[in-house]
Fold this sequence. Notes:
Six copies of one chain form a homohexamer.
Chain A lengths: L1 E14 L8 H8 L8 E14 L10 H16 L2 E2 H4 L10 H12 L8 E7 L4 E5 L3
Parallel strand pairs in A: 1-3
Antiparallel strand pairs in A: 1-2, 2-4, 4-5
Amino acid sequence: MRVTVSRKAHFNAAHRLHRADWKAAQNEAVFGKCSNEHYHGHNYELIVHVTGSIDPITGYVMDIKVLRDLIKSEVEDAFDHKNLNVQVPEFQNLIPTAENIVVVIYNKLRPHLDTSQDLEVVLYETPRNFVKYAGE
Amino acid sequence: MRVTVSRKAHFNAAHRLHRADWKAAQNEAVFGKCSNEHYHGHNYELIVHVTGSIDPITGYVMDIKVLRDLIKSEVEDAFDHKNLNVQVPEFQNLIPTAENIVVVIYNKLRPHLDTSQDLEVVLYETPRNFVKYAGE
Amino acid sequence: MRVTVSRKAHFNAAHRLHRADWKAAQNEAVFGKCSNEHYHGHNYELIVHVTGSIDPITGYVMDIKVLRDLIKSEVEDAFDHKNLNVQVPEFQNLIPTAENIVVVIYNKLRPHLDTSQDLEVVLYETPRNFVKYAGE
Amino acid sequence: MRVTVSRKAHFNAAHRLHRADWKAAQNEAVFGKCSNEHYHGHNYELIVHVTGSIDPITGYVMDIKVLRDLIKSEVEDAFDHKNLNVQVPEFQNLIPTAENIVVVIYNKLRPHLDTSQDLEVVLYETPRNFVKYAGE
Amino acid sequence: MRVTVSRKAHFNAAHRLHRADWKAAQNEAVFGKCSNEHYHGHNYELIVHVTGSIDPITGYVMDIKVLRDLIKSEVEDAFDHKNLNVQVPEFQNLIPTAENIVVVIYNKLRPHLDTSQDLEVVLYETPRNFVKYAGE
Amino acid sequence: MRVTVSRKAHFNAAHRLHRADWKAAQNEAVFGKCSNEHYHGHNYELIVHVTGSIDPITGYVMDIKVLRDLIKSEVEDAFDHKNLNVQVPEFQNLIPTAENIVVVIYNKLRPHLDTSQDLEVVLYETPRNFVKYAGE
């Protein structure tokens, strides 16, 4: 009997999409206004899904307060009010597209969960654009 | 060609998380303010997903009005404006965590659906905390 | 040049609507299932609007962090995961209808704001039912 | 490493549910007020999910601008501010239930995606009623 | 001490914007695709605000169940799943723009409220376009 | 008979809150992590309300397409995917707090509206923090 427990969180950050090994014109052609050299930013909305068995003693798959605190320490404290390109080590050599961010978040959270539990992460870059990663 | 038909519903209820076989301190340690002896409550938002084949005559997987009425009779009439711990039989010996509630709802709806159809139930306890169960 | 600064917050609580000086039948007739003796509950969503002049030094009408903390200490800490009828002093002799709750919240916040600032409070009892009070 | 990229879009359209080979009474019995001969309408909200590998050069599964433009040309331009029964060829002989519409949208989008990518389409007919199709 | 009580409701309807005394080209020039002769439609979201004094006996400005039923009988039953141009008498000689619809709804509700109460009506034609009328 | 017509829009931008005439410690004390020298960003959601009389010929207070295009040319084209501090002239000597941004937007839109019409602008910096300005 596997149930999924989900928690929404959010963080605000600046970023830009560009490759240092490309000229400005190529960055502009591929990434458009997202390559603006002075950055732009988003209110990222995050949903973390953890799937596992219900503990018959507590009725919990996972204490949602523990999940909330894990998201805070691993994601919000690391990303909130930061410039992803400049201030977050994972994106020193990785373009902070929504796709790459969601994989980085997954990889930061995964080691803290029980191996019997499944993890899926959804990241909204805007209310209309979002991505999902489940580690496969 | 299997399509999922989904319906949102809601109910308002009181509950508390505690075990009668635990002392107050242990309940407080595990369940925190959710163990408040005088109860607290939520606007539960419910999403019921039914997956099946499209009937070529009607273009329906399932008449959404039938699904709406089923949710009303099985869930809303049973849970809305109730104290889950005190007034809902399924929680007499089961802690009404979101996880346990979603499983109870699944088990109440499942017998009313065709065996060829799949069921998945999502329950929001708050806008940021929610659970999902698909019967496996 | 007056600008309104707004902050959303929320709390979860149990309540019931009834008058001790009425018989059960009269309470049932007036308040319906909201008078359930075992309580029910809601995820209350709160919006606090403060209107005032922009401070030319900071560009703030009011530091939103200060407003957030004020809402936490005056409202969330007092109401969250509580039974309003039993555990919140303001409702010992006042029915906790949404109307009365929004006035109580207004009265708790008003003394903490500058007299040059206007206050308006909106309270959602459910996503479809809400109330507003501005102190007049 | 497969990631899902999602895009929300919308269109407004009129429709009715009825079968020309049924009498009015039968249409009314099965489709209720949805069979109103003068039509009614909806703000359809659409979510398109595309799952594939991240391109290591761009960090994209798919350029979301390309997906946005594809949805516009294939779905919005074809359906927005249209009467689905009268003006959209796919529904000349197919009842425009939400289930049938989501399958039509899937079939219009599928040929434009790489065969290595998976497609799932979600369609909200109202905020409480929605459907999903993934081509199986 | 005046408090506003608000209720959200909704209805789905078809409409078109056109003047019979204009040629098609002029209708097209002014109303664009909204003038489509075969109609299109919307999920109209409605918010009704009633402002008045709190009854000290009940703690209500107005029983929200009474307001809900009033909206149902006056608005939902009259407009839901209807073609506004063809089937709703108020729009026989009045273009069903959002502006005109919100005034019609106001005028239908106003006589049912106490003269000491204020009424304001908000109507969402789409999630991004909406109108408001308060009778002045 | 004055009706309000409203349009939602959005833009994504980077910003930081700081005063060049203050030392870093003072900026940090007043603006906290919002003063991060490498910027952070937001998905700004914008609501523009225009109040005026209904034109009896068209049934419009203002053609919502005209309002949409005005918001695009005056606000979205100027702010979207920009660094407000560095790339938007209005904030060269004005801290881009939400309060100051909403006043700037008001001042950019006001000259394009008829003097008989009222304007109110709401700006969401995050889903929980927002501001409003009506030109007084």
